[in-house]
Design a protein that fits this description.
The chain is an alpha+beta fold. It has nine domains: 188 residues, no CATH class; 69 residues, no CATH class; 174 residues, P-loop containing nucleotide triphosphate hydrolases (Rossmann fold, 3-Layer(aba) Sandwich); 62 residues; 138 residues, no CATH class; 119 residues, no CATH class; 100 residues, Lipocalin (Beta Barrel); 87 residues, no CATH class; and more. The protein has 37 helices and 56 strands. The strands form 17 sheets. A five-stranded parallel β-sheet has the order 8-9-10-7-11, sandwiched between helices. Strands 18-54-53-52 form a four-stranded antiparallel β-sheet. A four-stranded antiparallel β-sheet has the order 19-20-21-22, with no helix packed on it. The longest helix has 28 residues.
Length: 1348
């Protein structure tokens, strides 16, 4: 059936693979017959491998698992490799009268007493390459004779007849089709020959039918085949695809029209039936999202639960084979028990590599779950379980915090509370304290701490608390020779917290050997067992013993001691293991398979490994050294070869489920390192990395690759590797390509491909940054001398707050928008990569089917500035830098110590309860002093972060920083306060004013130093602080300037440059201010303070709000200069009226204003003061904006509530904001909120259309063309275009990428009552907007978006 296999491989499999990829499935074909001869392998394991592979497919596949192709050959009837002892004795008894048969049977079957129960093993066919054909044929002749004798014996035992007689094919049918009733997940194709031409000779029979050794047709095999087909027709009619085709010269010729139609028919049936079965399987699974989806599949807690279960499962597996170490476990449990009710230190288990630290910690966690009470929480993380990747400390701590919070009923970490590493550390420490205060027990077990990534210098263990609260235990393990252990010894002065994993004793080794062999139903002879114990005794290493046992389980009782190959060390044993694998499978095949598994970033799928080895010419040359490939134009690695190798590696490989797919990787870090040292030398490593990179690039998909095989000249062949698109379907990314491609391009040195295929493509950047894994631009920038790569990398670093806020699941459109807002100004300077990237972003956004804001300028912080590091220190307080340390005290009483070398937090000193007044480092620099407003003075050790002593009431409580001073002499410490020392001389004053003027009478004073200020009268209380800090009110002549009375500032008037002189015109009530720039400012002192002002939309009028009134002015021009005339209208505010905070002037001279108390009023200057009070807000009004045509107005308040009003007639639309602007057509309204977002609303429907995060509150917005121009509180200027399609889908959710609440409410508008002047139908203009009709005649849906 080779022609059918080739047709399926070329036509059917690619179509089904594409269909599966579109559903988020991985399609993998395991055809163990491909590329091999019809004879079995010399070790007789082929049949067992076939049946095991069927079982693996049944366990892993979500759809069809078994595809059968049956032609006209029954196949090879192989003898079983293993025969139970009782059955073998029965066979011997039947051959008692046949000495020659007994001799033959004993020659080929040997008793293995190491099996439990004992078993007879068929001896392998020895292939000698020098003269292999003669010995091989002779051996096969013996096997044929032996098979005949055994078959004759079996005729007397019908119960065991089926055990020997069926072919491998029939056993596969039994296992995959009938044994567990898997017909619903199977497909069956049977080919029949209508008639046999008389001229078809024996040679042509051999191509498609069974023949005997003398070349004649095997009638017995044909009879058995007919029986098998009859059984298939009867039992599997539903899945049977029967074809009748006449062969041409004993084979299928694709060039023949009839045969071509037959092959096309097989492929069409295969594709249609596979799609139907896969679709049905997906429906039964509920069409759940699977591999590759870009949407958020689970909540964060669900991901943490999955991770926790994985580590628990690995821990349980390690505990099954755990024996010994009772002494170490007892010491750990005793230390935890004794420190349960007091504050204590973490426990450290250390030892050499492979000494069993991981198993000890797993057993400890298991014991703690059984010993502690039900409320206890046990968390275990095996940090070396994901090698070669090193876990990030932020991910580890976040995962632990989430698990502990979910188990303890605490609030889990959120992007708002743990957006930075420092905040995560504080949250972690707080969680430990809260669990302790609850009275529950908590055990955190962290294995292989030295495996943490270098980010945040995790190996320095600054994240690990050294002072744990009661009932909270932290146990960590690390290698004794690691940097982490040295840092831990530095942190923990006492040796009582350290426990060493020592060598295995002889008794412990015996128990481990006995337990492991019993689980495998094996044993060893006395000589073999002694050899193992003697070898392990020299090292005492559990990993060494594990490697020996993985080999010893395959020893038979007749294996000579000279062939045992026991290495005296772990490294030597690994070398022996590699050598044994090479002798059995081939050096290139073993080296290639192990090397590719080691080099993969996230492990490899088995299908990927077979594809990659098919691209490796060295592997292919070794495989086809002695036989040519079945189809020279189509060369692939025979899947059977990898299946046999994987069977021998089963003790050293593990499956890792990543993003819904199962990858294979080594289960031991030391073995992975040994493979790298043994096989991946510099040249081999580079070649393997390039092959991996080319595979994930899809370079050889559908293309011919040159191949050089022994006995053939250079030829071009198709390796049949699948394509590697970035997107399988809309919203369905190729996760494997994103995980592996950049990594291999980087490490293989393919810089240009990395720049062009990854860095400068928006598709890679979008998915790479939006998903849970980002592309390795951090590593790229270290090795690539490329400025543009570094700038893109820095831009992604600047985007980290957004990714943290969205928990790593940023919508692609938001990602492109932010990237464009950071890089667009660099287009012209860097056109090659950045220019191309920005063009792709803009092109993608213009085609986006949903509403979108498209940046037209760089308004977010750009990469490439002079800023090198940003320390996330607490706000306020005091700071001092001494040598290589920075000590900062905050307003909330926390003192932080930072290292200036690596820019990392060293200690967080907790103890003060009020703001820090002063900090000082002493002792070069070993200690630190901190003085706080709670009156306490504390001394800290900068070595371990511990408090040394505390002096209460060192200063008055609630002192301010400027009133205290710390001074140290050689033996004394002085604390000065401004109220407790004599006033210094005038010459000691350092803050002097440049000018002073005093009003007459002397009730007010003005001074200038860059700020013009006025003060009102106050009490005569005298303090030195008043002179040092500010010049206060004066009620006496200037001579009392030395000790002036206290006062209060009435008003501060900012100026543009330094004040040079001040003068008062008392009769005119004016303050004249001269600046060094030559400007003279005139301030009227008689007018009330201006609270706010606004110009009309047509800029003809100006409304000014004072403290007691509101005036309307006219804006004109006189002598070509703008002039303000008026006031034209004025109305007084009531005595108890709240100050106006925002207002807007309508074209018809109506004024809409809001107050600091939340009141909203519409005042009509044209109708003599007609007043309409609108629905008030619960907090102060911050924004009032009117549409361009004056039909709508938006009012926003401090509580993030915003309301859109229809002004003709008056009606409420939606609610929250600091600034707003209507679009040119008044169709949309743009709002800037305190939550640092810009929102776009639909005026007609009140629906939210789009949300954009801009990092800073937008305080002013102005309409500009099809978008707006805005300014943020940080001073950035935003210019964006808004694009909205005519039709928006019903499933569109503008806040799907934000942790936000988006609600729709309904309310009735009462048109009757005091608002008759504005709600009358006579004022309604039907040509304006349908919104008015909605607001008048029915309940209006209103929307609110509150960003959490």
């Amino acid at each position: 059936m080779s022609s059918e296999r080739k047709a399926l491989l070329e036509k059917a499999y690619p179509e089904v693979r594409s269909f599966c990829c579109g559903l988020g499935l991985v399609f993998e074909v395991v055809d163990l017959r491909w590329g091999i001869r019809n004879v079995p392998s010399g070790d007789h394991e082929a049949c067992e491998v076939f049946l095991e592979e069927i079982q693996r497919c049944e366990q892993m596949s979500a759809g069809p698992t078994f595809i059968a192709l049956l032609g006209n050959r029954y196949g090879h009837r192989a003898l079983p490799r293993l025969i139970p002892e009782k059955l073998f004795d029965a066979l011997l008894s039947k051959l008692s009268k046949n000495p020659e048969g007994i001799k033959t049977l004993n020659q080929w079957f040997k008793k293995d007493s190491n099996a439990v129960p004992p078993t007879y093993v068929l001896q392998p066919i020895i292939l000698r390459r020098n003269n292999g054909s003669t010995h091989q044929v002779k051996a096969r002749g013996h096997h044929a004779q032996l098979a005949t004798q055994v078959a004759l014996c079996c005729l007397c035992f019908l119960s065991v007849f089926w055990f020997f007689l069926p072919t491998v094919t029939e056993r596969e049918f039994e296992r995959g089709l009938w044994q567990n009733d898997y017909e619903s997940s199977a497909l069956l194709f049977v080919r029949e020959i209508p008639r046999q031409k008389s001229r078809e000779g024996p040679k042509r029979f051999a191509k498609f039918m069974d023949v005997t050794g003398d070349g004649l047709l095997d009638a017995e095999a044909q009879g058995l085949l007919a029986g098998l087909k009859t059984r298939l027709f009867v039992k599997s009619q539903k899945i049977l695809n029967l074809h009748s085709v006449e062969l041409s010269r004993g084979s299928i010729n694709p060039k023949c029209k009839e045969h071509a139609q037959y092959l096309d028919s097989v492929c069409e049936q295969f594709v249609s039936q596979m799609k139907a079965r896969i679709g049905a399987a997906m429906d039964s699974l509920g069409r759940r999202k699977m591999w590759g989806t870009t949407e958020e599949e689970e909540k964060m807690d669900g991901l943490v639960v999955t991770e926790a279960r994985r580590h628990i499962a690995i821990s349980a597996e390690l505990c099954r084979g755990f024996h010994g170490r009772e002494g170490l476990l007892g010491k750990l449990c005793l230390a935890m028990w004794e420190s349960s009710n007091v504050r204590h230190r973490p426990l450290v288990v250390h030892g050499g590599a492979g000494m069993g630290k991981t198993a000890v910690l797993c057993k400890l966690a298991q014991e703690m779950r059984g010993v502690l009470e039900a409320r206890a929480v046990v968390v275990i993380r095996l940090l070396a379980a994901c090698h070669p990747q090193k876990p990030d400390i932020d991910h580890v701590l976040h995962s632990i915090c989430t698990q502990v919070c979910l188990a303890s009923g605490l609030a889990p970490p959120s992007p708002l509370t743990v957006s930075t590493h420092l905040e995560l550390l504080r949250f972690f420490w707080d969680v430990l304290e809260q669990v302790s205060q609850q009275g529950g027990a908590l055990v955190i077990v962290l294995d292989s701490v030295e495996q943490l990534a270098d980010q945040h210098h995790a190996h320095k263990l600054r994240w690990l608390p050294v002072d744990l609260p009661p009932n909270v235990h932290v146990v960590v393990s690390m290698e004794t020779n690691s940097e982490a252990f040295a840092n831990m010894r530095f942190k923990l002065e006492s040796l009582g917290s350290f426990f060493e994993a020592e060598r295995l004793s002889c008794e412990e080794g015996e128990r481990i050997i006995e337990s492991d062999l019993r689980a495998s139903q094996r044993t060893l002879t006395c000589e073999q067992s002694s050899a193992v114990l003697q070898t392990v005794e020299s090292s005492g290493c559990p990993l060494h013993l594990k490697l020996i046992l993985s080999v010893a389980k395959r020893w038979t009782s007749f294996t000579p001691l000279t062939e045992l190959r026991l290495g005296t060390s772990t490294q030597e044993m690994m070398s022996h293991l590699f050598l044994m694998l090479e002798e059995k499978h081939g050096k290139e095949l073993v080296g290639g398979a192990l090397g590719y598994i080691t080099l993969a970033r996230e492990g490899l799928l088995e299908a990927e490994l077979r594809d990659v080895m098919s691209l490796d010419d060295d592997v292919i040359s070794e495989v086809y050294r002695y036989s040519l490939p079945p189809i020279p134009s189509l060369i692939r690695l025979p899947p059977l070869l990898w299946a046999r190798l994987r069977r021998d590696l089963e003790d050293h490989l593990e499956e890792r489920w990543t993003d819904g797919v199962a990858t294979i990787a080594f289960n031991n870090k030391r073995l992975s390192e040994a493979v790298s040292a043994h096989y991946l030398r510099s040249e081999r490593r580079g070649r393997s990395l390039r092959i991996l990179a080319e595979y994930f690039l899809g370079r050889w998909s559908g293309k011919l690759r040159p191949a050089s095989l022994p006995g053939l000249s250079l030829l071009l062949s198709d390796r049949k590797v699948p394509p590697q698109p970035l997107w399988f379907a809309p919203g369905l990314a190729n996760i494997r390509k994103l995980q592996e491609l950049p990594y291999h391009l980087l490490h293989s040195g393919l810089w240009e491909e990395l720049r062009q295929e990854v860095i400068s493509k928006t598709q890679h950047r979008g998915k790479g940054a939006c998903g849970s894994r980002s592309l390795p631009l951090f590593s790229c920038s270290k090795y690539m001398d490329c400025t543009e790569t570094g700038l893109i990398r820095d831009a992604l670093v600047l985007m980290k707050p957004s990714l943290c806020f969205l928990e790593g699941h940023m919508e692609v459109s938001l990602f492109y928008s932010e990237l464009l807002a950071r890089l667009s100004s660099l287009n012209s300077a860097f056109p090659t990569v950045i220019g191309r990237l920005c063009s792709q972003c803009e092109e993608w956004l213009l085609k986006y089917p949903d509403p979108i804001l498209i940046p037209r300028s760089s308004f977010l912080q750009q990469p490439g500035g002079a800023l090198q590091h940003t320390l996330s220190v607490l706000r306020g307080g005091q700071m001092i830098v001494v040598l290589r340390l920075l000590v900062a005290g905050s307003d909330d009483g926390v003192v932080e110590v930072w290292s200036m070398l690596d820019k990392q937090l060293v200690h967080t000193l907790l103890g003060h309860t009020a703001s820090i007044l002063a900090v000082k480092v002493i002792g070069s620099p070993a200690h630190c002093l901190s003085l706080a407003a709670d009156g306490s003075l504390r001394r800290w050790s900068l070595m371990n972060g511990q408090q040394l002593f505390c002096i209460e009431e060192a200063v008055p409580i609630d002192s301010i920083p400027s009133s205290v001073h710390l001074h140290l002499s050689e033996q004394l410490l002085f604390v000065y306060t401004r109220t407790q020392v004599p006033p210094p001389r005038l010459a000691s004053f350092t803050h002097c004013r440049m000018s002073l003027v005093i009003s007459d009478p002397a009730s007010a004073l003005a001074s200038g130093e860059g700020v013009a200020a006025g003060w009102g009268g106050a009490s005569p209380e005298q303090t030195l602080e008043n002179i040092r800090i500010n010049i206060r009110m004066m009620s006496r002549p200037l001579r009392s300037m030395l000790v002036p009375p206290a006062g209060s500032v009435c008003e501060r008037l900012p100026v543009s440059s330094e004040v040079s002189c001040l003068e008062l015109a008392q009769n005119k009530r004016l303050l004249l201010c001269g600046l060094t720039s030559g400007t003279v400012l005139i301030y009227p002192l008689s007018l009330c303070r201006v609270l706010c002002l606004t110009a009309g939309t047509k800029e003809k009028h100006l409304a000014v709000a004072y403290e007691d009134s509101v005036c309307l002015f006219e804006i004109t021009s006189r002598d070509n200069f703008p002039t303000v005339e008026g006031p034209l209208k004025k109305f007084a505010l009531p005595l108890l009226h709240a100050p106006l905070s925002a207002m807007a002037l309508l074209p018809d001279r109506r004024l809409l204003y809001g107050t600091s108390c939340g009141e909203v009023t519409l005042w009509d200057f044209g109708r003599g003061g007609d007043v309409s009070d609108l629905e008030p807000h619960r907090s102060g009004v911050t924004c009032v904006t009117v549409s361009n045509r004056g039909a709508h107005a938006l009012v926003g308040s401090e509580d993030t509530v915003q309301r859109l009003w229809a002004l003709n007639p008056l009606g409420f639309l939606f609610e929250g904001v600091l600034s707003a602007a209507f679009s040119e057509t008044d169709r949309f309204i743009f709002t800037g909120s305190q939550d640092r977002t810009i929102k776009v609303w639909d005026v007609a429907s009140g629906n939210l259309l789009f949300v954009q995060y801009v990092y800073s509150p937008v305080v002013r917005m102005v309409t500009f063309r099809d978008g707006f121009v805005a300014i943020t509180r940080q001073g950035a200027i935003i210019r964006e275009l808004f694009r909205c399609p005519d039709h928006i889908g019903p499933d569109y959710n503008p806040v799907r990428s934000f942790r936000a609440q988006y609600r729709v409410t309904s309310r009735e508008k009462d048109r009757e009552g005091p608002q008759t002047s504005v709600s009358n139908l006579q004022d309604f203009n039907p040509t304006q907007l349908n919104l008015n009709l909605v607001g008048m005649f029915k309940a209006k849906p209103s929307s609110a978006c509150v960003m959490l």
